[in-house]
Amino acid sequence: MIIETPSKVILFGEHAVVYGYRAISMAIDLTSTIEIRDIDGNEIILNLNDLNKSLRLNLNEIKNINPNNFGDFKYCLCAIKNTINYLNIEPKTGFEINISSKIPISCGLGSSASITIGTIRTVSKFYNKQLKDDEIAKLGYMVEKEIQGKASITDTSTITYKGILEIKNNKFKKIEGKFEEFLKSCKFLIVYAEKRKKKTAELVNEVAKIENKDEIFKKIDKIIENSLKTDNKEDFGKLMTKNHELLKKLNISTPKLDKVVDIGNRFGFGAKLTGAGGGGCVIILVNEEKEKELLKELNKENVKIFKCKMIN
Ligand SMILES: Nc1ncnc2c1ncn2[C@@H]1O[C@H](COP(=O)(O)OP(=O)(O)O)[C@@H](O)[C@H]1O
Ligand SMILES: C[C@@](O)(CCOP(=O)(O)O)CC(=O)O
Ligand SMILES: [Mg+2]
Q1: Alpha-carbon span 141 to 155, nearest angstrom
Q2: Contact at 8 Å (CB) between 110 and 308?
Q3: Residue limits of the GHMP kinase N-terminal domain (predicted)?
Q4: Residue 92 has what pLDDT?
Q5: In the chain, is it the N or the C terminus that has fewer CB atoms within a 10 Å radius of its CB?
């Protein structure tokens, strides 16, 4: 059995959302693929194809492991463990899981949440249990929280329910109607600017220590309130850039991210870093009249450009 799972991009509100403030996020068509098959014996074999890493463990170990001791395997292992415990089954059949992904790892596009939700769907189906999306999203959120320490439902909910979500107080609402139509008419570019040196967990914990963070988060919340009322790309882009300026005050931007955002401002309607920051990706709202110049400038910067579509 093979299951493909999307990733996400945060349009506004990363970090603030961890503290109950608003965020807007969108599921995108960069996907991870998880394959599961039964094997003889009572083992679990995990192959992380992109990282060239494999792990074998005994089936009866899984229920009590501490995933945080397993490096890059931790999201996948925690998802397997929590799913088996939630389903309340005694696993008897061994299985092998193969993970491969088109989502650049640890750069703000929710690769961890994609792997987590994909693993939960795969393992529950393997045991012939049909989980509802609400159960899958909840299990996924518990995994991100367990590994990150602090987390919001943003990534796991967006990847489970797809489309565009508004998150507030750790609850979500699907964005539909006029604002959805406006967002669908917007062309976004996702630019992988540089490798991120830190994992989301570390960045979330660093932001937690910033004393005036609530003041900054309140300003971000106001930006989102205004963005929800607009149907003008120029205004929307300016709001994205304003959000970026506030993220800089949380010390999660870098000179490279700022440079790409600057190009996004000069040749597009606006731009901001997306996800936990500290490197990784920038999202740019394209001004189609200047798209050629935008791409020309970006191509001078040794970046990778993803033209992603929203998945619903
Ligand atoms: N292709 C993959 N194969 C295996 N594990 C992955 C893969 N992509 C992501 N992960 C897991 O997710 C972690 C990165 O998560 P995180 O730091 O939250 O970054 P992101 O912004 O991409 O979600 C990796 O260290 C690894 O544990
Ligand atoms: C920083 C945060 O708001 C988003 C993190 O996204 P990512 O793992 O960088 O894709 C954390 C969260 O919402 O759990
Ligand atoms: Mg993540």
Answers
A1: 8
A2: no
A3: 75-163
A4: 86
A5: N
Task: List binding-site positions for ATP.
Answer: 104-114
Neighbours of ion ligand 3 (CB under 5 A): 112, 200
The whole-number pLDDT of residue 66 equals: 96
The residues annotated as belonging to the active site are 155
Residue 223 CA, chain-centre distance (Å), reads: 21
Q: What is the pTM of this model?
A: 0.96
Residue 176 confidence (pLDDT) = 93
- Give the Å distance between the CA of 52 and the centre of ligand 1: 13
SS3 readout for 151-207 = CCCHHHHHHHHCCEEEEECCEEEECCCHHHHHHHHCCEEEEEEECCCCCHHHHHHHH
Complex ipTM more than 0.95, yes or no: yes
Q: What domains appear along the chain, each with residue ranges and CATH number?
A: 2-165 (3.30.230.10), 178-306 (3.30.70.890)
Q: What is the pLDDT of residue 51?
A: 97
Helix orientation angle between 111-126 and 154-161, rounded to the nearest 10 degrees: 50
> For 310, phi and psi rounded to 5 degrees?
-70, 140
Could you say which residues of the chain have pLDDT below 50?
none
